[in-house]
Design goal:
By secondary structure, the chain is α+β, with helices and mostly antiparallel strands. It has helices spanning 7-23, 26-34, 41-49, 68-80, 87-100, 103-115, 210-246, 258-271, 275-287, 289-317, 329-341, 346-356, and strands at residues 120-123, 140-141, 144-153, 160-165, 169-174, 180-185, 194-203, 205-206, 248-249, 252-253. The strands form 3 sheets. A 4-stranded mixed β-sheet has the order 1-4-5-8, with helices on one face. It starts with 6 loop residues before the first helix and ends with a helix.
């Protein structure tokens, strides 16, 4: 039995990797990270031209009709490059519409989201930090919605927002509609900007099958964050090894020092076996629904925890330069902070996985 990637999946990752090497080298990454723009429109346009915005959108609506594992493989490659942009929010908005939208809602929005004509995002978190559908409190009254939603990826730039509502439902709100305001959040990870969304009797349209789709959207997000964290952690290991080969101290490269050798070996063995966790979770999302929820929670909890620790180790391995704003490694470390916190901390997710297992 072949547990590897198909030729098409390997080609997809390679294509995205080549694109990012050309369009977002470290110098450009620092420019975007240090800048004030919500995201780089040229870089995002290039991603949409590659088809990344429509990977899981059904073919009838202009997408590629692929599965979540394919989207997760792209997320891994983006995480490896710390690629900035609105990929995560747009991906989850397309998942929400594909799973929970009516035929009319899908026809109206999915072709635009897939083709890059419109940008989507999701507004799920509650002000008290609740991420789960049963924690959402915004009630739809008379086709209007009033709520405050923090931690919305690229909320100020989104043309369409998928908002978590009371009872575990989802509703569509147009980003330029009356009653919609946003405030930027100065978060650590500047590769994926966050906004606080305020809705004051904003017109909305509940997703036809939003209650059924909501937990699936959450699980898709957990899988994508786990994949992003795997890619980021792998890159931290690679950067640390390369630095150890070139940085000299006492007349030799620091890679000769036994303590650092052990640290680098531990970093590699912590992350590489975790690849199967996110592969399995993403596969289960489409093929094993009875296992999907727990697999997604465990993958996100474990891999984002490993990313945080490996990020710390990478900063240490780089010595003084690892603590500077000008260094590269700090960008991945801050990305690890986002991956760990968004959609729930590892402690919360492990508790939910234990409950799902009946422990």
């Amino acid at each position: 039995m072949d547990f590897g990637l198909s030729e098409e999946q390997a080609l997809l990752q390679h294509t995205v990797e080549q694109f990012l090497e050309k369009e977002c080298p470290p110098s450009r990454l620092h420019e975007i990270f240090d800048g004030d723009a919500p995201y780089d429109t040229d870089l995002w346009r290039g991603m949409t031209e590659l088809g990344l915005a429509g990977l899981v959108v059904p073919e009838v609506h202009g997408g590629a009709g692929l599965e979540l594992i394919d989207l997760a493989l792209v997320a891994e490659t983006l995480g490896r490059a710390a690629a900035p942009g609105p990929f995560l929010g747009n991906a989850l908005a397309t998942v929400a519409l594909a799973l929970g939208g009516s035929e009319t809602q899908q026809k109206s929005w999915l072709p635009k989201l897939a083709g890059g004509e419109a940008l989507g995002s999701v507004a799920l978190a509650e002000p008290d930090g609740g991420w789960e559908p049963d924690a959402w409190s915004a009630a739809v009254e008379g086709g209007r919605l009033s709520a405050t939603k923090p931690y919305v990826p690229n909320g100020a730039s989104a043309d369409l927002l998928v908002v978590g509502t009371a009872g575990g439902g989802l509703a569509l709100v147009e980003g330029r509609a009356a009653g919609v305001t946003t405030k930027p959040i100065d978060a650590a990870d500047r590769t994926r900007r966050l906004d606080e969304l305020t809705l004051e009797a904003a017109p909305c349209e509940p997703l036809e099958n939003g209650a059924a789709a909501a937990p699936r959207v959450r699980d898709a997000g957990l899988c994508l964050l786990a994949a992003d964290a795997f890619g980021g952690a792998s890159k931290c290991v690679e950067m640390s090894v390369e630095y150890a080969k070139t940085r000299e101290q006492f007349g030799v490269t620091i890679g000769h020092f036994q303590a650092l050798k052990h640290q680098l070996a531990n970093m590699a063995t912590e992350i590489e076996p975790a690849r199967g966790l996110y592969w399995y979770a993403a596969h289960a999302f489409d093929a094993l629904p009875e296992e999907a929820e727990r697999a997604a929670a465990l993958a996100k909890a474990h891999i984002t925890d490993r990313f945080m620790q490996i990020g710390r180790d990478a900063v240490e391995a780089h010595g003084g330069i690892g603590f500077t704003w000008e260094g590269d490694v700090q960008i991945w470390f801050k990305r690890a902070m986002f991956d760990r916190a968004f959609l729930g901390t590892p402690a919360h997710l492990r508790a939910r996985a234990a409950a799902l297992a009946g422990w």
